[in-house]
Amino acid sequence: MMLVYFTFDSRPDLQQQLLDQFPQVTFVFHNEIDNNVLAQADVIVTYGEDLTEDHIEIAQNLKWIFVASAGVEMMPHEKIAEREILVSNVRGIHKKPMAESVLAHILSLKRSLPYIYQNQKNRIWNKRGGNPSELNGSTAFIIGPGAIGAELGRILQAFQVNTIGFNRSGQSAPYMNETYQITELKNHLPKADIVISILPSTKETKHLFQYEHFQLMKDSAIFMNFGRGDLVETDLLIRVLEEKLIGHAVLDVFEEEPLPSNSKLWDLDNITISPHCSSHSTRYLERSFEIFVPSLEKWLKGETDLENKMDILRGY
Q: Is Mitochondrion among the key words of this record (predicted)?
């Protein structure tokens, strides 16, 4: 009997769904990896942060890893590729909650909500302050216009925002008014009101944003990183914000997580710090299972053309 090993616990109703739908499969759910179970596992379901090279070595029966996350940078890529283990993930399930999170931050800044909240806390009635502006008519750059970027573009266009996408190929992307190659980014940055990165962590994207990128941006621009923290070097970002080269930064990801309590980023007044929670939702696991269940059905029939199959060495 096939053994599917979840290296995290999940909601009892979702577990029961699997047990009812796949009586021919043995499911094991653990919060910590048990090497004895691992050695027998045909399939592993993981968040992608707990598997080591040693685990892959122990899991001699392993043929497929399903990652209930979009990022796989913490997994032992080479060892997995060497064993030719298939990897698939839940790319796309973040698009609704993440797009709503990005939009919430943009509207909060545009409509001066932090100022309003602070005045309420201090019992101050002031109709004049906060300097509110409007989102409509803005130009937003979406760097990495995949599933999340497309959903964000769809919503922003409803607010009459001009959406410009940047990807590797420069080929048109859904809900982008224009699309260019990432290598052309510097040529267009001066016209951006909002710059949103949803890039994964790869060799090409590490420290992609340099000082000159921020120099080219409007001093009123909002820079938002919702992809991976190594897009910008932390010390560089601190310098940019201290020099007020841009209007505001909204960061959901950081080079070091959790962000240390002594980081200078906490002290700046032109930054919003979100603790890598923009994709969180009470419906997260439910959405993950909506991808996993059809994939498991295929797998049991001997099919390997699964949704969101990845090239583990490329990281996506």
A: no
The CATH homologous superfamily of the domain defined by 95-273: NAD(P)-binding Rossmann-like Domain (3.40.50.720)
CA 146 to chain centre: 11
Listed by start position, the domains of the chain span 2-93+282-300, 95-273
Q: In what order do the strands lie in the sheet with 222-225?
A: 178-181, 162-167, 139-143, 194-197, 222-225, 248-251, 271-273
- Tell me the one-letter amino acid at 218: K
Q: Which CATH class is domain 2-93+282-300?
A: alpha beta
Q: What was the pLDDT predicted at 34? A: 95
Q: Could you give the CA distance from residue 150 to residue 241 in angstroms, rounded to a whole number?
A: 28
DSSP state string for 55-85:
HHHH-TT--EEEESSS--TTS-HHHHHHTT-
Answer whether 135's CB lies under 8 Å from 110's CB: yes
Q: Which amino acid is at 56?
A: I
Neighbours of 64 (CB within 10 A): 20
Dump pLDDT digits (tens) for 88-115: 999 888 899 999 999 999 999 999 999 9
Q: pLDDT tens-digit profile of 261-310?
A: 999 999 999 999 999 999 989 898 999 999 999 999 999 999 999 999 99
**What span, in angstroms and rounded, lies between the C-alpha atoms of 288 and 126?**
45
Coil, strand or helix at 224: strand
- CA 262, distance to chain mean position in Å, is 25
pTM value?
A: 0.80
How big is the chain by its Cα radius of gyration, in Å?
22
* The length of the chain, given as a count of residues: 316
Distance from first CA to last CA of the chain, Å, rounded? 31
Identify the pLDDT of residue 203: 87
* Residue 124: both structure tokens together: 């101050």
pLDDT-flagged residues of the chain (< 50): none
CA distances from 26 to 30, 103, 157 (A): 13, 42, 47
